[in-house]
Design brief:
By secondary structure, this protein is of the alpha+beta class. The chain contains four helices and three strands; from the N terminus they run ββαβααα. The mean pLDDT is 92.
Length: 97
């Protein structure tokens, strides 16, 4: 059974990059070595793998990647830190009254 990965990299400029791959080890080497000069992480190396999740269905993995890419930095950090109870609250917008 083929495994697909959604991963979050922490970049040297303290930003996050979210990606999808079927070969996590190879993709991390590509990010770290700067294989793709037009990639977000190229000028933000070194990078660090902060989080990854495994999927058997590539469609679910791609949908998850797209969802995480829309998240705030705080929400991504809650996921990375395993603070799953905080995720719903971080999705809510705060309004000043």
């Amino acid at each position: 059974m083929k495994i697909y990965y959604v991963y979050i990299l922490k970049c040297s400029d303290d930003t996050y990059y979210t990606g999808f791959t079927s070969n996590l080890e190879k993709r991390l080497i590509e990010h770290q070595s700067g294989k793709h000069k037009d990639c977000y992480t190229y000028s933000r190396r070194p990078i660090h793998l902060a989080f990854y999740a495994e999927f058997t269905d590539p469609n679910i993995a791609i949908a998850t990647e797209k969802q995480i890419k829309k998240w705030s930095k705080a929400k991504k950090e809650a996921l990375i830190n395993g603070e799953f109870d905080n995720l719903p609250n971080l999705a809510k917008k705060k309004f000043n009254s």
